[in-house]
């Protein structure tokens, strides 16, 4: 409870007296990654974020693989190799066997919260020492990237 | 603890009355706690620095400098290949101008937060700044103008931005005339620049006027929408020692323009197309690149032939401000050498025109009788009235340059209510929303011309001083001094809520259509085209690709096209290379910008990221090798490739 009181005081002050941050900002979906209070659910290995359950299909969805590869080349390849070699970030080889699909998608779409709160993500930060940037990847794009990762790991 | 805090905040927000005239609570009125936002953006002209400063109110904190008519080595504006065309004119590349006035776009006479317009005084230009990106998006040069001072004032729905010339000049085919032939050969122009829904500007028409100096202007609003008012001085038509010779008459003019009438003439084909030469520069947001086009014609209307477009209203004495109150009925002339403030009535002006209640004409243009247009005069307001704004509660605030004060007076009864000193010699003033139909009130800011002892001395030149006054009560109260850069002339303030929700955080890589963009490291490359070497480079925390380049020849022009692959807010990268004769560039997330570099010497040239980006920022670097023309080093480039040490030695 100790922590809650100062928060209350500040918000009361803010409510009583302008100037304050404009209200619209909280409603702005663009900002949701900064202001959202995600649920802590990092015990199930799925990470923290909007992605709760991913269904994987076999054979691979080739359209997704193609789109995922294009996104990889534009936004990810600067730091991630497709082999197991770590450069700025870890290589992607076998990432789909190391991590649950939900964890991967949450890491890609909710990276700031993951780096602050998810134990596995924090271990990676200690290893790489560069915060993975938010690359403004949508959930749909992340799903495409995941499909491309599965192909990279030899799935058909 | 909770109760104490709540009580404190309640007390802080009590409306201030005269009993609080002592400024004991001034600090809390301007205090914006760490992490909190200001209530208003203050968009402030930079005068001779050619820039716009963005400040917060009430804190007075400086957030950003937007280069408009000036090069800016800090971010490469005017130096990068993409931004150079923005400063092109009919005279070529003009890297400086004198930016005096701001106009924030309006819809139905109220701020809408889309654009800021600004004037370039010296080489006549008008700029449009996009308030989503805070970048200069467009610059339009003005032909037949000799100093664009009476600008960029806008109509109620941003239909037009106007540009009135300060200096009248000879125009047409023969401009090589004796200066002493002013009366015969010199003319003024007022350009009406049409603004379309995307913001794009073009000169719809120019009104050719008798030779005078135009100073400031305001559009009508509400009942007076469709009219525009310009202050004129030098109706003596002097061309030398204006200090004396343009101050002879008791009254100069406010020029009333019926622009709806001008539109009718235009529609009826009464415009005359004349030859001209002026640049129109626009920024394409998808290519992050500006282009410049030289236009060759402009349409003119001659009010001497086309009656009922313009009328003169006598106004004492060398008027500067020419301000229309929020109701649109009252036009306040601020004659900077006058000892009173005339208030004109739009209804009476209309009546006088209908009855042809004229005292004569000036160079063929009807002059309305002073008394017939006048609502009344504010007597003994102070010395040197310059500019007036409004609080929306029936009060006007006029800056007094000579007596260094702001005077608050009531528009209806013309009585002075309050006066406060400014430090020192106030020029323009600004009330948030002051020129609109719905002023936000609350504060008035004084932009002073003289600073003297207000801050720690910094040699002969001092920062400019602005002062913030609380106008929520009957009496004005000084609550803050804050320094400003350049020399602010006019400024506007707008509620933050009209800007922040639409503020752009990144440029999407998917939308980047720059022809030299490398959208991903796999797309990086180095190409030779004759003596040009084009490097398609990417930047991401924390490396540049390629970071080893060989095969550049001495004398080559090397173009570093750097794409920032980041897609996160506030992660720009910078790029600088040793010996560059221009500047650095800053590249926003998702953007591509180009630095041209002359490889003038043989050797190894380091390049690096200049904007601190991560713990490994200091590692974000590369080498370019420049070889003598006869040395046959093949063009190659890489990142992260480690070569055998011995193999490179011989080459």
UniProtKB/TrEMBL annotation, chain A:
Residues 63-153 form the Cytochrome c domain. Signal peptide: none annotated. InterPro entries: Cyt_c-like_dom, Cyt_c-like_dom_sf. It comes from the Bacteria. Pfam families: Cytochrom_C. Keywords: Heme, Iron, Metal-binding. The keyword Flavoprotein does not apply. GO terms for molecular function: electron transfer activity; heme binding; metal ion binding. This is C-type cytochrome. It comes from Dawidia soli.
């Amino acid at each position: 409870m100790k922590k809650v009181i100062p928060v209350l005081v500040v918000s009361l002050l803010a409510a009583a007296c302008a100037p304050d941050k404009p209200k619209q900002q909280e409603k702005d979906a663009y900002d949701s990654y900064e202001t959202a209070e995600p649920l802590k659910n990092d015990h199930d290995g799925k990470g923290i974020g909007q992605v709760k359950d991913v269904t994987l299909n076999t054979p691979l969805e080739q359209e997704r693989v193609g789109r995922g590869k294009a996104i990889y080349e534009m936004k990810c390849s600067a730091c991630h190799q497709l082999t197991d070699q770590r450069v700025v970030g870890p290589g992607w080889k076998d990432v789909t066997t190391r991590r649950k699909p939900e964890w991967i998608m949450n890491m890609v779409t909710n990276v700031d919260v993951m780096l602050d709160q998810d134990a596995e993500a924090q271990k990676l930060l200690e290893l790489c020492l560069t915060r993975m940037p938010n690359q403004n990847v949508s959930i749909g794009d992340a799903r495409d990237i995941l499909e491309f990762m599965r192909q990279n790991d030899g799935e058909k | 603890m909770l109760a104490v805090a709540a009580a404190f905040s309640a007390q802080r927000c009590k409306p201030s009355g005269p009993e609080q005239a002592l400024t004991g609570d001034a600090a809390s009125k301007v205090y914006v706690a760490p992490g909190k936002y200001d209530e208003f953006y203050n968009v402030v002209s930079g005068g001779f620095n050619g820039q716009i400063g963005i400040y917060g109110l009430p804190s007075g904190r400086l957030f950003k400098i937007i280069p408009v008519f000036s090069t800016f080595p800090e971010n490469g504006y005017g130096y990068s290949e993409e931004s150079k065309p923005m400063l092109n004119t009919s005279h070529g590349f003009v890297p400086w101008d004198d930016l005096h006035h701001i106009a924030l776009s309006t819809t139905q006479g109220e701020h809408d937060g889309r654009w800021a317009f600004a004037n370039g005084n010296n080489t006549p230009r008008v700029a449009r700044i996009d308030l989503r990106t805070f970048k200069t998006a467009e610059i339009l040069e003005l032909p037949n103008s000799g100093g664009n001072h009476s600008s960029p004032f806008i109509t109620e729905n941003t239909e037009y931005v106007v540009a009135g010339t300060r200096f009248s000049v000879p125009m047409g085919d023969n401009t090589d005339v004796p200066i002493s032939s002013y009366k015969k050969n010199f003319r003024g122009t007022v350009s009406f620049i049409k603004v379309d829904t995307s913001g794009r500007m073009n000169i719809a028409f120019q009104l050719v006027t008798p030779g005078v100096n135009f100073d400031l202007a305001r559009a009508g609003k509400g009942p007076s929408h469709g009219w525009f008012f310009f202050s004129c001085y030098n109706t003596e038509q002097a061309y030398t020692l204006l200090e004396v010779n343009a101050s002879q008459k008791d009254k100069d003019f406010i020029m009333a323009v019926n622009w709806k009438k001008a539109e009718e003439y235009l529609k009826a084909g009464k415009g005359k197309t004349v030859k001209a030469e002026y640049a129109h520069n626009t920024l394409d947001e998808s290519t992050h690149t500006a282009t410049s086009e030289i236009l060759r014609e402009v349409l003119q209307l001659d009010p001497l032939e086309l009656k009922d477009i313009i009328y003169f209203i006598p106004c004492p004495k060398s008027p500067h401000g020419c301000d229309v109150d929020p109701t649109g009925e009252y036009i306040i002339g601020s004659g900077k050498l006058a000892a009173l403030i005339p208030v004109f009535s739009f209804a009476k002006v209309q009546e006088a025109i209908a009855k042809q209640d004229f005292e004569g004409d000036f160079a063929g243009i009807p002059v309305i009788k002073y008394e017939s247009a006048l609502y009344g005069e504010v007597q003994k307001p102070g010395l040197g009235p310059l500019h007036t704004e409004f609080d929306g509660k029936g009060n006007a605030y006029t800056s007094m340059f000579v007596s260094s004060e702001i005077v608050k007076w009531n528009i209806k009864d013309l009585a002075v209510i309050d006066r406060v000193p400014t430090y020192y010699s106030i020029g323009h003033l600004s009330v948030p929303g002051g020129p609109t139909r719905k002023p936000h009130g609350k504060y008035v800011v004084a932009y002073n011309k003289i600073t003297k002892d207000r801050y720690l001395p910094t040699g002969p030149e001092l920062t400019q001083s602005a002062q913030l006054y609380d106008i929520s009560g009957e009496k004005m109260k000084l609550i803050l001094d804050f320094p400003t850069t350049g020399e602010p002339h006019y400024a506007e303030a707008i509620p933050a809520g009209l800007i922040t929700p639409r503020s752009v955080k990144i440029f999407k890589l998917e939308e980047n259509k720059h022809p030299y963009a490398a959208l991903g490291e796999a797309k990086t490359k180095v190409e030779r085209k004759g003596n040009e070497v084009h490097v398609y480079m990417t930047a991401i925390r924390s490396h540049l690709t390629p970071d080893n380049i060989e095969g550049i020849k001495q004398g080559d022009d090397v173009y570093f096209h750097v794409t920032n692959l980041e897609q996160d807010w506030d992660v720009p990268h910078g790029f600088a290379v040793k010996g560059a004769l221009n500047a650095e560039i800053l590249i926003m997330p998702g953007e591509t910008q180009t630095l041209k570099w002359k490889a003038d010497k043989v050797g190894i040239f380091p390049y690096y990221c200049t904007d601190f980006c991560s713990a490994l920022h200091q590692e974000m670097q590369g080498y370019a090798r420049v070889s003598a023309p006869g040395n046959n080093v093949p063009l190659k480039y890489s990142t992260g490739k480690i070569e055998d040490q011995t193999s490179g030695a011989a080459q």
